[in-house]
Amino acid sequence: MSESRTIVITGGTKGLGRAAADAFLAKGDRVWILSRTTPAATGATPHPRLRHLVADVRHRDQLDTAVATIRLESPQLDVWINNAGFGKPVPFHDGDNALWDDMFAVNFWGTVHGTRAALGALRRPGGVIINIASVVGFMAPRGHSAYATAKAAVIALTRANAVEFAAAGIRVNAIAPGPLDTEGFRAAGGDPEKRAQTIPTKKMITPAEIAAACVFLAEPISSLTGQTLVIDGGSQAVGCYA
Ligand SMILES: NC(=O)c1ccc[n+]([C@@H]2O[C@H](COP(=O)([O-])OP(=O)(O)OC[C@H]3O[C@@H](n4cnc5c(N)ncnc54)[C@H](OP(=O)(O)O)[C@@H]3O)[C@@H](O)[C@H]2O)c1
User: Which residues form the catalytic set?
Assistant: First the structure.
C-alpha cells in the first residue's frame, strides 16, 4: 500500500501500543490511539499524524463514539489493533472474582468491543484486525490463571473471527509476545533483568519487535488470517515460561 492508511490502536499511549503507533507513523500512516488517559499525562511525544481519543475498552459505547469521531476524518479504517490489556498474578484460591472480572473486561471484552466497534468501518476487502494476546495464552506460569485464560480466549476469538470475516475480506491475526519491558510489566511486579535470564535469547522482548510484527501483519498478504504469531525469544519452543 503506498497511500497513507488509517490505523487505530487501543491502549496506545505507552508500552507496546505506543511502539506500534511509532512504527506505523514511520511508514507514513495516520494513527489514532485510544486510552483512558491522555498522552500528555504519560509524557508521550506528540506527532502531527498521531491523534488521541479517550475511550475505555471496557465500554463498547465509548469505542463506538471514538470510531464515529475518527470516521469524520477517515471514513474507512485500514488496521485496528486491540492492544489495551494487562496481566497481574493472582492466586486462584483467593476466590475473589473482581480481578478476574477486570482481567476479562479489559483483555477479552475489550477485544470483543474493539472488534465490534471497528467492523463496520474497516475497509472491505483489505481491513486488518490485530489482537495482542500473550504467550501466557499458550503456557501456564504459576499464579496467572486469570490472565492465561483471558489471553487464551483472545487467541480462540482470533481464529473464530478470522473465519467469520473472511468473506468480507477482513483478516484477523494475533501476536503472542513473551515478556516485554514496559510499565505494565513492571507494574505487575516483573523484574526485567531477572526475567531475561529465563528466556532462551537471554533478553526481554522489545516493544519495537512486536511493533514490527504488527506492521508485517498489516501488509496486504490476503491469505494470512486466523494465525497467532508467538514472539517470545524461544520460550515456548523450549517449553519454559518461568
Ligand atoms: N508487558 C508484557 O510483558 C506483555 C507480554 C505479553 C503481552 N502483553 C500485552 O501487550 C499489551 C500491552 O501491554 P503493555 O505492557 O504495553 O501495557 P502498558 O505499558 O501497561 O500500557 C497499557 C496501555 O493500555 C491502556 N489501557 C489500559 N487499560 C485500558 C482500558 N481499559 N481502556 C483503554 N486503554 C487502556 C493504557 O493507557 P491508560 O492507562 O491511559 O488507559 C496504556 O496506553 C497488553 O494487551 C498486554 O496484555 C504484554
Answer: 147
Is the Cβ atom of 32 under 6 angstroms away from ligand 1? no
| Boundaries of domain holding 222 | 6-238
Note the pTM of the prediction, 2 decimals.
Answer: 0.97
Cα(80) to centroid of ligand 1, in Å?
Answer: 15
Q: Which run of H or E residues covers position 16?
A: helix 15-26
The Å distance, Cα 85 to ligand 1 centre, comes to 4
CB crowding 26-35: b at 16 or more within 10 Å, else e? eeebbbbbbb
Residue 10 resides in a domain:
yes
Residue 73, domain member (yes or no):
yes
Does some domain include residue 28?
A: yes
Ligand 1 atom at minimal distance to the Cα of residue 187: 20
Q: For residue 1, is it within any domain?
A: no
Domain containing residue 184: CATH number? 3.40.50.720
The domain tally of the chain equals 1
Task: Starting at the earlier edge strand, list the strands of the sheet with 6-10.
Answer: 50-54, 30-35, 6-10, 79-82, 128-132, 171-177, 228-231
User: Along the 242 residues of the chain, how does pLDDT read in single tens digits?
Assistant: 457 999 999 999 999 999 999 999 999 999 999 999 987 666 667 899 999 999 999 999 999 999 999 999 999 999 999 999 999 887 788 667 888 999 999 999 999 999 999 999 999 999 999 999 999 999 988 889 999 999 999 999 999 999 999 999 999 999 999 999 999 999 988 999 999 999 999 999 999 999 999 999 999 999 999 999 999 999 999 987 66
